[in-house]
Specification:
The chain is of the alpha+beta class. It has six helices and 15 strands. A five-stranded antiparallel β-sheet has the order 5-1-10-11-15, with no helix packed on it. A hairpin with an 8-residue loop joins β12 and β13. Belongs to the SOS response-associated peptidase family.
């Protein structure tokens, strides 16, 4: 299952992280629908607004279905056929939908039939492992691989190498549009599709989000004009390209919107590992969440000081951390402890 996520990037950087190529191969940045509704947070829970990608054709009938829009939608799908005047009166939980039964349930089958597929964006998601009567939270995300940025341009549209920051987790979702029966604003909501957990996550929880790993998968899931539902559903399966690390129980309270929610802890000590001064500066930057910083000022915060578990990626986040510290002229006091599966 998936009941809590982090998506802290300010709107401008989140847009850059979603750079893509349209059907003609032209680099594009998705445009926003109702951008003011997006509020960055390290601790997003159901009923909050989260950023999702969808095809522009859902909003403009004559648009190219390969073009994308970002919209802040409410987490927890409200079916278009729901006839109560208050969406909170919905009697069943639609935060997630199981991949094995979603075509049997009207709430999900109807919007899927209309091509209402979306990609939920996040830094990663949180999951809790039952351990000796206690629940230990983990932060789960894509392994981060450093790329070299172009030195010729600071503009995302001109930079052929693309976004060089944190790789956003891209989860398959279904959205719907509910119109209040007595009139009022349309309400866009979504649910996250879940599948059986991959081998790497099975020790933490038996379910996980359906993750779309790579641009091709994201493109096929979104492009309902060219990719029919049955073909798109072949993308829904467990993905092994995932990594994680334990985090503080501060994340347990959804009101705690803090960088510490996703900072790695040492399970043996039940506290955060000692962090270098460079790491502390990076954490201070995260706390500001300032969208006014220029790209050149944005630190490569990805996972260079996180402890994490082994992942299929060739270059681990822990290794990137040591490289970054060496570049900054610092030496870690000790090697990070790698959390085993």
């Amino acid at each position: 299952m998936c009941g809590r996520t982090s998506c802290h990037l300010p709107r401008e950087l989140l847009t850059r992280a979603c750079k893509y190529r349209d059907r003609r191969g032209q680099p594009r940045l998705p445009e926003w629908k109702d951008p003011d509704k997006y509020i960055p947070s390290y601790n997003k829970s159901p009923q909050s607004d989260s950023p999702v990608l969808l095809s522009r054709q859902h909003l403009e009938k004559n648009a190219d279905s390969s073009e994308r829009v970002i919209a802040a939608m409410r987490w927890g799908l409200v079916p278009s056929w729901f006839r109560e005047d208050d969406p909170s009166k919905l009697q069943f939980n639609t935060t997630n939908c199981r991949s094995d039964t979603m075509m049997e349930k009207r709430s999900f089958k109807v919007p899927l039939g209309k091509g209402r597929r979306c990609v939920v964006l996040a830094d990663g998601f949180y999951e809790w492992q039952q351990c000796q009567g206690e629940k230990q939270p983990y932060f789960i995300y894509f392994p981060q691989i450093k790329t070299e940025k172009s030195e010729d341009s600071q503009d995302a549209m001109d930079d052929e190498k693309g976004w060089d920051g944190w790789r956003l987790l891209t989860m398959a979702g279904i959205f719907d549009c509910w119109e209040p029966p007595n009139g009022g604003d349309l309400l866009y909501t979504y649910t996250i599709i879940t599948v059986n957990a991959c081998k790497g996550l099975n020790s933490i929880h038996h379910r996980m989000p359906a993750i779309l790993d790579g641009e091709e998968a994201v493109s096929k899931w979104l492009d309902f004009g060219e990719v029919p539902t049955q073909e798109a559903l072949k993308l829904i399966h467990p993905v092994e390209n995932i990594t994680f690390h334990p985090v503080s129980t501060v994340v347990n309270n959804a009101r705690n919107n803090l960088p510490q929610c996703l900072t790695a802890i040492d399970l043996a000590l039940k506290k955060e590992p000692k962090m270098s001064s460079s790491g502390q500066k990076m954490l201070q930057w995260l706390e500001t969440k300032s969208p006014k910083k220029e790209e050149s000022e944005v630190p490569k915060w990805s996972s260079q000081f996180f402890q994490k578990s082994p992942a299929p990626a060739k270059r681990s986040s822990a290794g990137l951390m040591e490289q970054w510290l060496k570049k900054e002229g610092e030496t870690p006091s000790k090697k990070p402890n790698i959390q085993k599966d």
